[in-house]
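Regression check, zinc ion case 298:
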Amino acid sequence: MEFTLYCQWCGTQFRTHKMTARYCCQRCSKLAYKARKKTEKIKAFDASKVKNQTIENKPFLSPTEVGTLLGLSRATVYRHLALGRIKCVRIGCRTRIRRIDIEKVFDKAIVCRKREKDDRPTELYYSTKEILEKFGIEKKTLYRRCRMYGIEKIADGNRTLYDRALIDKYFDDLIEDVDLDRYYTMAEVMKRYGMTRSAVTTFVMRNAIPRIKKHHDVYYSRAHFDAARQKMGGFNPEYYSYAEIKDSYGFNRDQIRYYVNKYQIPHKKQGSFTLVLRSGFDFVMKQHMGGNAVKREL
Ligand SMILES: [Zn+2]
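Current build output:
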């Protein structure tokens, strides 16, 4: 069955099998489609204009409206609100932002630093990662040294940068290889003085022996260590230091003092140390403690 219809674009009469046909030819159909899209676009534009106008007249805005105003997504606006970059007030479950607060954000804006194209710090700055790699240190060392030398962090987006010249100046000593003529390794100290690892640690701490930490190894100043040991009477195998007893028996200072006094174990003061006769202490432990205190093999 054939119908006679009028083209909705050019008005020509045409014959067709479909009652729903609106255009006489493909060309008319295309042109009509384009015209329809154009009108839609204009309408949308007008609508957004009206919306923007209403936003512009509002003293208080919702996060969505702020997004429209600044050309940001709603999520981005919320993120800035959470970071406190834009002031906002929650009223019930609504968030409202004062228009003047948005303008204030621009008033106190800091100067934008242009980022390097390859996203690496310029030759003026080090990133945290670069410092850690270059000087072979840990984060806590970096922070401690920065505090010590008053080197300020520079926030750059989500990265932290450090002044390259300052870091190079103050961290220079880290880059030299440790001079093993001047420093003991932990293993050397343990062997030379027959101390356990924790005895060394305690000794170093008590005597404030200068040390260098590098790549997870610790080096102790030979001169200082030897001097401190000498002051203590050198390595006297007949006597225990408290630290050594602590290592061997796991007693604290008070416990050691208690046993020494109670069983009158021979002991002597040397500098700031108390030395306890080794054989005496071991004997007392064996006699009085039975199986309760088991001396750990050193
Ligand atoms: Zn037509």
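Comparison notes: The mean pLDDT is 82. The chain has 13 helices and 14 strands. No diff flagged against the previous build.
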